[in-house]
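Revision sheet: structure tokens.
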Amino acid sequence: MKSKKNVVQQAGWAMRRWAGWAWLGQAIRRHWLGAGVVLAATLLFFAPLLPRITTYSPGGDAMFNAWTITRMQQCLMGQNCHDITDGNIFYGHQHTLVWSEAQVSTAVLFLPLRLVTDNPVAINNIATISMTFLLGLSMYLLAMHLSGGRRLIAIMCGLIFAFAPFRMSAIWHLQNLSIFAMPLAVLAILKYQAAASKRTARWWLAALFVVLLYQCYASWYQMAFTMLAVVTLVVGLRLARQVSWRQTGMLALVVGLAFIAVLPLAKVYVDSSKQNNSGYSLTEKTLYSSSLKDYAIPSSDTLTGKVFYKLTSHKPSEQMHNGYNPDSQSYHGATLWLAALTAVVLYIRSARRGGTRTPQFVRSRALAYIFAAMAVVGVIISLGPFLKINETYVYILKSAQVPYTVPLPYLLVELLAPQLSFIRAIGRASVVPLMALCCLLALLPHVVARAQSAASRRYRMLGCVSLVLLLAADILPIHMAPMRPNIAQATYQIPAVYRYIRTQPQVDKLVIIASQDVSPGESNYVREQMLWAGYHGRYMYNGHSAFIPRDYQATMRSYYDLSGDDFASMRSKGLGYVLVDKKASTAATNQRASQLPALYDDASHRLIAIPQ
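Predicted:
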């Protein structure tokens, strides 16, 4: 018979288990509407893609990212892979999977999709839609915390972070979409700071570690930007005395542990960079940095942008990726900047006026100052090593006709932290001010409510709705996900030859011939070859990455005539099979291939064992 003491202990454990899961039900009840709106907006935006989710690809980097995560999944499952750095491209070279963004954690996040499909196109499209939703959801959750549960403003913040012009320039870049971890990291820090018990605080520290670990293993770029936001926030909280030295130390420890956890992968990446003499010049980094005009010119994707281009002499074609940055956009909306500035000014005025100050208001004011500083720092970093007002960073001193340039703080990063030389598209750092501006928007209701008189509060909802409408017109896109005009050319189904290769374990170490490809390391041809390498898992000589092996492109072009010397060269590299892409090859190449015995042949491909 159970003792009374045992019964009490078991009841206590049961209550604790129930309490451990009770938060989930509370979270669902509180956030289902906001999450539902963000999800509906995401599905509406990607509506043209949904019927073609298993076959459509815009090509380019979308194919490269599809290969990256599916090859990483193959390595995680031990399918013809030695370790998680073992890309199956550029056969003969090591660690090719980390020659660019390895996206380990993103591959892990979507590994369950392997239970239902192994189609790289489908996996990439589902990941793109899901991570866009996570962008909006993460910012919504952070804004709900900052605004004190004001759902309308929080939803708007989520939609801005997911669909701002900054996002429209990189819809298909999975590594950029992984930045959904940044608002979650900020939320975890703020929850830790406000935790009512040591147990709750430990849980939020653990959550912060998991989020940072995800970000570190998802993208080197986004890791750097997230760490910039995290460090700015922690330093600001300490300067504002919102966290104790002990709390600061614990946060620093968690950040340090996340860095340490990613060091093995980082070391491989750095070593590969040195071996391949990788690095980007200051000129390249300045080209891919933001300009001041990028922050001022409205996006042609928005209603405000359409009106702007109609009323001015500017043409939308001039605004290729928002003006003068060929990689990303930096327009975050004049309305959003104005709302953020209003919040900061009102908080400053409230500090000067004095009066009753609740701990919550003091905390909100400190956070407003911190996020304002974060926005400024993010803008300065995104401008790169030299100031660009328009498209150039070189100016002429008219009085003496002497050229000059204006160095910016990021130049010190180049000089003092060469480890960050992998960052070429520094303009992507404008995601930091985008998040900071959304946070200031979420903090605005606190100070507005304090500044308003009792008589004017009846107009608060009207003002809030008006602000949301202005933000939507200024920032949100007025179109769905853009699809390639010729859908047939963007439809990719797994070729029959790759299904055959996958069933033949002995067929490995391929070289794929597409003799119409004049740039076999950069073209869409090679990206498609890599796309299907994420399906069949075999090693191949072909490839594309941030690093291109020396003489690779010249060697590939020399193979196009399939001569005896070519086969001797292929054998010397350890290759075993030639796959001729008939539709992407010249008549001369197809004629030569037809004279060789084939293991597999159809209207599109001919598979040949390299003759001895």
